[in-house]
Design a protein that fits this description.
The chain has helices at residues 29-45, 58-62, 74-83, 96-99, 103-112, 136-146, 165-173, 177-184, 200-203, 291-310; strands at 2-4, 18-21, 49-55, 88-93, 119-123, 127-128, 134-135, 149-153, 157-158, 161-162, 188-193, 209-211, 222-230, 237-246, 257-262, 273-283. It is an alpha/beta fold. The two termini are 34 Å apart. 36% of the residues are buried.
Length: 312
């Protein structure tokens, strides 16, 4: 997948795509429905399939001090989109110049002249341009003026209600990763390089792989049964495990952390990229009267996680 990070001087091979436009935070089923419509347009027109998105998220640009809300970082989003068969990811900088573009200016300077897009697909609630003044109907008008096709995708629902990043965040905050997965179409995952931690888990017989989760919306703190993909290095593969997400109250710390114990694994994966998917919520985080009951509980957590992950 080619990644383009500017709408000026676009490489010829990256022009002319049929794209889905949006933030695609989480790449949930609603996003995938929009992407599939763009895929059909790309196949019909014989063009690349693209995604047009922004970095940072516009919400972060306008409210930089707001609590973290993103379900995934840019790297995880790109990885997920590549797995869906996207040919070109237009990851454009959302800065003062982009924020100041009027709707017609965005359509002309970015969609038409900058990237030379042939077809765009957006959700029915799509808004664009300065002050979000442009809507889906306006985009259709600009497409007719400037020569690109426009398709408006219906919003979709699921068993838990409307599929949206907001609904997914709510499910995760309540410790319902399976409901979140039903809306995502995949497990909610944290992805990144394994970093060095305090090594307490190793000393206690449960060595963990730690990830930096700063800047992301955090699910309910506690212990989870997880499915791990080691994406790089000699130990690349799929594994099961148990993960602790929280502030480690047992040790008096307060910075949120994700520590994952991989079952039946002894490889060195420091610096390798892994993806940790939350499959089941086991229990909230808690403190213990000493290390012995703490270790006993960790073993019980691992036994419970093994049983859940082994179930059909």
């Amino acid at each position: 997948m080619q990644i383009v990070r500017a709408h000026h001087d676009t490489p010829p091979a990256a022009r002319g795509a049929a794209v889905a436009i949006g933030n695609f935070d989480g790449v949930h089923l609603g996003h995938r429905a929009v992407i599939d419509i763009a895929r059909s347009a790309a196949e019909t027109n014989g063009t690349p399939l693209g995604i047009l998105t922004f970095e940072p998220h516009p919400r972060s640009y306008f409210a930089p001090d707001a609590p973290p809300f993103r379900l995934m970082n840019a790297e995880a989003r790109a990885h997920r989109l590549e797995k869906l068969g996207v040919d070109v990811l237009y990851e454009l900088p959302f800065d003062a110049a982009m924020a100041g573009l009027a709707p017609e200016g965005f359509a002309r300077e970015v969609i038409s002249e900058g990237l030379g897009l042939t077809h765009v697909v957006v959700g029915a609630d799509f808004c664009f341009g300065k002050d979000r003044a442009g809507d889906a109907a306006a985009l259709i008008r600009y497409g007719e003026m400037m020569g690109f096709g426009v398709t408006i995708a219906d919003l979709i629902g699921g068993e838990t209600g409307r599929v949206s990043s907001t609904a997914i965040r709510a499910a995760l905050a309540e410790g319902r990763p399976q409901d979140a997965a039903a809306m995502l179409g995949h497990l909610h995952r944290f992805e990144g390089p394994v970093i060095t931690g305090a090594q307490r888990g190793r000393d206690l017989g449960f060595p963990t792989a730690n990830l930096d989760i700063s800047g992301l919306h955090l699910p309910r703190f506690g212990v989870y049964a997880v499915m791990i993909d080691v994406l790089t290095g000699p130990h690349a593969g799929a594994y099961h495990g148990a993960a602790s997400l929280g502030t480690r109250p047992m040790f008096g710390e307060n910075a949120p952390n994700l520590e994952t114990y991989i079952f039946d694994f002894s490889g060195d994966i420091y610096g390798e990229t892994i993806s940790v998917g939350l499959a089941h919520f086991l229990r909230p985080e808690e403190t213990f009267d000493g290390l012995e009951p703490f270790i006993a509980q960790m073993q019980a957590d691992c036994d419970a996680a093994r049983a859940l992950l082994a179930a059909p």
